[in-house]
Amino acid sequence: EAQVTQNPRYLITVTGKKLTVTCSQNMNHEYMSWYRQDPGLGLRQIYYSMNVEVTDKGDVPEGYKVSRKEKRNFPLILESPSPNQTSLYFCASSEGGDTQYFGPGTRLTVL
Amino acid sequence: QKEVEQNSGPLSVPEGAIASLNCTYSDRGSQSFFWYRQYSGKSPELIMSIYSNGDKEDGRFTAQLNKASQYVSLLIRDSQPSDSATYLCAVNRGDKIIFGKGTRLHILP
Lengths: 111, 109
What we know:
The structure holds 2 protein chains of 2 kinds.
Chain A (H helix, E strand, L loop, with lengths): L3 E4 L2 E4 L5 E7 L5 E8 L3 E10 L2 E4 L7 E2 L9 E3 L8 E8 L6 E2 L3 E5 L1
Parallel strand pairs in A: 2-11
Antiparallel strand pairs in A: 1-3, 3-8, 4-5, 4-9, 5-6, 7-8, 9-10, 9-11
Chain B lengths: L3 E2 L5 E4 L4 E7 L6 E7 L6 E6 L3 E5 L2 E6 L4 E6 L8 E8 L4 E3 L3 E6 L1
């Protein structure tokens, strides 16, 4: 089954404790991206990657890091999480950056 | 001007009626346009994509694109309670996909 998976689905952590949210897709897509979704602000792109070892900032990259060492994986790293990073996070993949296929989401709470 | 604008709603429509959702975009160079449906707490899922001016129909859904007016719409015929969700308009600007904030649709039984 074609899918995008994310782990963990739910995470509660404390300020400053480094965390990684994993994202994996099995569709051989070149384009992957991370979004955060907040009430009233909609979906905002954090980072995207057009291919292995190629990443670029989206609209809200501050406080986040990504890497793309393999085509299928695109982890999101929060080196020092803060409460304003409490949000619902979605990973997405697409062929050529067009139709986005979304993962199930990760609900992150930073205390 | 926001890049992709949608009325946040809620838009309330009686069951069986036509729901009409609208979206405007600012970048005239945009080439592809999408409608996603998102249930509360779930991930967005693609309903329709449209690339050229005119109408595109898929079952109960019709997407309409007018590039001259920079306007995209989604019509849902014979609205069902299961259509109650937030509908996101997305525009491929060339360098990235830009999402609107979404319109909440409520189908009244």
